[in-house]
Amino acid sequence: MTKQELENRLIDFAASIILLTITFEKNYAGNHLLGQITRSSTSPALNYGEAQSAESKKDFIHKMGICLKELRETFVCLKIIEKANLSTDHESLIRAKTEANQLISIFVSSIKTSKNNS
């Protein structure tokens, strides 16, 4: 996968989460998690863009680590939303969890490779 393909995948993931939030229950928990997951799911695309302009290998690994952290936060948030039945779109929720998990695996592997090449 090229850098551009991964960036596009992260952008698509963020957009899919934003669209998923439209289906959230309109209550305190739904509104809280809507804001939380919007921030955590859009952060990886933005930080990945920054990682491409990293000033050093250490800076690159750090920014990639932030992407990974935010993806893990998004994944846990999706699990909470699912358990609490805060979304009416269960199919999109399952797809989002699958994509988050795949992106997490990509970033774990990329960070490991970058550390080994340092």
From TrEMBL:
It comes from the Bacteria. InterPro entries: 23S_rRNA-intervening_sequence, 23S_rRNA_IVS_sf. SUPFAM superfamilies: IVS-encoded protein-like. Pfam families: 23S_rRNA_IVP. NCBIfam families: four helix bundle protein. This is Four helix bundle protein. It comes from Flavobacterium soyae.
